[in-house]
Write a structure and sequence with these properties.
- This protein is an alpha/beta fold and about 425 residues long.
- It has helices at about 10-25, 30-60, 70-90, 95-120, 125-130, 195, 220, 225-235, 270-285, 300-310, 335-345, 345-350, 355-360, 380-395, 410-415, 420-425; strands at about 170-175, 185-190, 205-210, 245, 260-265, 265, 295-300, 320-325, 370-375, 395-405.
- The chain has 2 domains: about 10-120, no CATH class; about 140-425, 3-Layer(aba) Sandwich (Rossmann fold), CATH 3.40.50.1820.
- Helix 14 links the parallel strand 9 and strand 10.
- Helix 1 (about 10-25) crosses helix 3.
- The radius of gyration is 24 Å and the shape is globular.
């Protein structure tokens, strides 16, 4: 289950089988090799060009952060699909027909493997097959009690109980709206060993982790290996770690994600800044001592959201980590489409919530954050630098970190795991 999919022999084997499969599909009589294969290759190249135009120029499925070499793999996959039928018809034996079908499959698998290596979405077989939280049962509720001591648990005052587990657990929960009217799907909650080791509330700090688009809360545990990252941190600090809540950002059945804004497409910002914290305090008895116990972190779309929350709700989230986020919320079609869809064309309503516009008008002396960018990220590297400059000019205690890698989990995972000690100090676990 822990077999690596992005390193070691698996990507090499997938590539080798893909090349062998493509060679088989291109092999045959002279008429096939000189007429059918070149025509299919030209059609595959044209299909890849159309994919590029549609994805990056017309529909904005992705942008220049998409690794360019993956277009070669898309050409290879399209070529295999174009050749499988004529090669299959040409094959006279059943074994040859089976080999032809198998060859097309391994070419497609090689293309998928290359994309997985580029983004690191599924680093192991386990991350591909296991959904986090599906077997954990009901989340253990800790209701805050009237008159209880809400002193935060820190390394200085915490003694691990003898029955404390060595690992945290992940739970699938649905966090209802409680005033925003926002519809959300299932969220995931990571509870550290210190929380699970006692039936009493420990008033641990809270990290709201935000996923990308397209994406879901489970991505933090697949590509980001969040449970292992948090368990490793807890093991170094007597079982203490933040309670991590990963809300669903998709807006339920709404085809337009909220962009972590309050707009015609839903009050996503209010849901994240008010409804979710309210549920956490009432059901997990965490983050009870105010904003100094709360932080938000996200990657890509989630990084943009983390910044949005820190700027628009500084009293709720004075600590943030923006990992490869944009310089402003965007949707396919550009800014005018966004204004029309979300704000009825009112540019001022958007500017009132857009982080970089707000940073120009307000100061944030009590906010601290880290802006993480990938060295090879052709799009979000520059946009992250703009975010850093704007946040610094607005008085935030902000750092800029450039990590090796592109727009992938190589950067996104390290952007959180490498800053947990800083986060632990900000949230009080490790002291000042």
């Amino acid at each position: 289950m822990n077999l690596a999919l992005t390193t070691g022999p698996v990507p090499v084997i997938a590539f080798s089988l893909g090349v062998a499969g493509l060679c088989w599909l291109c092999w045959g009589p002279k008429r096939y090799v000189t007429r059918v294969v070149p025509f299919a290759l030209i059609a595959a190249a044209a299909g890849t060009v159309l994919l590029f135009v549609a994805a990056e120029l017309l529909l904005s499925w992705w942008n220049a952060s998409f690794p360019r070499y993956l277009y070669l793999y898309s050409t290879m996959g399209i070529l295999a699909l174009l050749l499988v039928v004529p090669r299959w018809r040409m094959s006279r034996s059943i074994p040859a027909k089976i080999l032809t079908s198998f060859s097309a499959v391994v070419v497609l698998l090689a293309s998928a493997s290359a994309a997985n290596v580029a983004y690191g979405q599924y680093p192991t077989v386990e991350s591909l097959l296991v959904r986090p939280g599906e077997s954990s049962g009901e989340v253990p509720i800790r209701k805050p009690l009237a008159g209880q001591d809400t002193t935060p648990s820190t390394e200085a005052n915490w003694t691990p109980p003898s029955n404390m587990p060595s690992q945290g657990r992940v739970y699938d929960v649905r966090i209802p709206e409680s005033g925003s009217g926002y519809a959300a799907g299932s969220s995931l909650v990571y509870l550290p060993p210190a929380y699970l080791g006692t039936p009493h509330a420990q008033n641990l700090p809270v990290l709201i982790a935000l996923h990308g688009q397209p994406g879901a809360p489970a991505d933090w545990f697949a590509g980001g290996q969040l449970q292992q990252v948090m368990d490793d941190f807890a093991a170094q600090h007597h079982g203490l770690a933040p309670v991590v809540v990963i809300p669903d950002l998709s807006g339920g059945t709404n085809s337009n994600w909220s962009l972590c804004l309050d707009s015609k497409q839903g009050r996503g910002a209010t849901y994240l800044a008010e409804d979710v914290p309210r549920w956490i305090q009432a059901n997990l008895a965490a983050g009870l001592n105010g904003p100094q116990q709360w932080a938000t972190a996200g990657y890509s779309y989630g990084g943009t959201c983390a910044l949005q929350l820190a700027v628009n709700f500084p009293d709720a989230f004075p600590t943030f980590i923006d990992i490869a986020g944009e310089n402003e919320p965007t949707i396919p079609g550009g800014i005018q489409t966004l204004l029309d869809t979300y704000f009825g064309g009112d540019a001022s309503a958007f500017a009132a919530q857009n982080a970089l516009d707000v940073l120009k008008k307000q100061s944030f002396p009590n906010t601290a954050g880290i802006v993480v960018i990938g060295k090879d990220d052709g799009v979000y590297n520059g946009e992250g630098r703009q975010v850093y400059d704007a946040a610094k000019a607005a008085g935030m205690d902000v750092q800029l970190q450039e990590l090796p890698g592109g727009h992938s989990w190589q950067v996104w995972k390290a952007g959180l795991s490498g800053n947990l000690d800083w986060l632990g100090q900000r949230l009080g676990i490790l002291g000042p």
